[in-house]
Amino acid sequence: MRKVTVSILFLLVALTWGTTWLAMRIAAETIPPVFATGMRFMFAAPFLISIAWLKKTPLLFPPGQRLFQLVICIFYFAIPFSLMIYGETYVSSGLASIIFANMPVAVLIASILSLNEKTNTIQIGGLAIAIVALMGILLNETNTNSESHWQGILALVLAVIIHATIYTQCKKRSFAVSVITFNALPCFLAGLILTMAGYLFERPLLSNFSVNSILATVYLGAFAGVFGILCYFALQQKATAFQASLVFLIFPLIAVSLENYIYGYAISTKSMLLIIPLAIGIFLTLVSRGASESGRWRESLSKNGRIPDDTEHS
Residue 165 contacts by C-beta under 8 Å, 6 or more apart in sequence? Predict the structure, then answer.
């Protein structure tokens, strides 16, 4: 029964994350990126705060960590998610998902630089393979209209770097909070900030918003931003950290397939072939970290039933 539950949760998370990138592309078609991201968080926040109220979960971080909660609001939610949807105004949703699938690689690099984490030959090999394969994909996909492509690519890569940096800072601080606490209030504050900033600087015209774009932001907030978070947390509780992390190898394939099916656009054959070594590289970085990460998760969950700092969500 446990294997069935883990399989269902894994599939739900992969589908949620895979469809998120297409939803961001649809949202950005008629809604400016910053305002769209603000709408996304404003749709998600009421559900998260309501869950916190029903479960009597605190909205604030522990004393001494509340300034860092503001940092998470800005640098985990507001800036990176705005960069993601901004990047998708220049590159395909499939390519965006492939870039973000390198999060485990970015986390490994950030952990080495910030935490002096020990590495092994397998990790370094996986890191090198993933970076070379990703660069090959990016160079191959920018053969045409390279200026705008690189603008979007840089935005997405920066989003990955910021997320990885915040992740390592959470690990460095060694505190554990509920997944709802981590997301609810920062999500709400980020939504307010981005909605106001988007209104002031992007001057969105509501009459220009398409129904599809509005529905996409609702999906990103109310479904992907709430249901996706809860499913991923449940998956991490029931599966090993390595098993849960394998979703990074699956959701880009879903995103690429959906974009091809709906828009008739697919990345080139060369790039598709380069996904194979990219997946191998990511897999090697994951498999060598799996045992230690799993141990830390189990220890934290057994002590207080809360998640530690691994709270990566798309």
Answer: 75, 110, 114
Q: Are 281 and 48 in contact (CB under 8 A)?
A: no
Domain extents in the chain: 1-298
How far is it, in rounded angstroms, from Cα 261 to Cα 95?
Answer: 15
Residues present in the chain in total: 314
Residue reference for tokens 């509005």: 214
Place of tokens 């939803």: 23
Output phi, psi for 277, to 5 deg.
-65, -30
Least Cα distance to 79 among 147, 21, 161 occurs for: 161
Specify the DSSP class assigned to residue 307: B
How many Å apart are CA 181 and CA 87, to the nearest integer?
28
Tokens of 170: 């959470």
Residues 6+ apart with CB under 8 A from 22: 93, 255, 258, 259, 262
Q: Which two tokens stand for residue 194?
A: 């981005």
Give the mean pLDDT per block of 10 residues along the chain (314 residues): 88 95 95 97 96 95 92 96 95 94 93 88 93 93 71 95 93 82 96 97 95 97 91 86 87 93 86 94 81 45 41 44
Query: Mapping DSSP to helix (H, G, I), strand (E, B) and coil, where does residue 29 land?
Result: coil
Put simply, whether the predicted model's pTM sits higher than 0.85 gets the answer: yes
Do the Cβ atoms of 212 and 29 come closer than 8 Å? yes
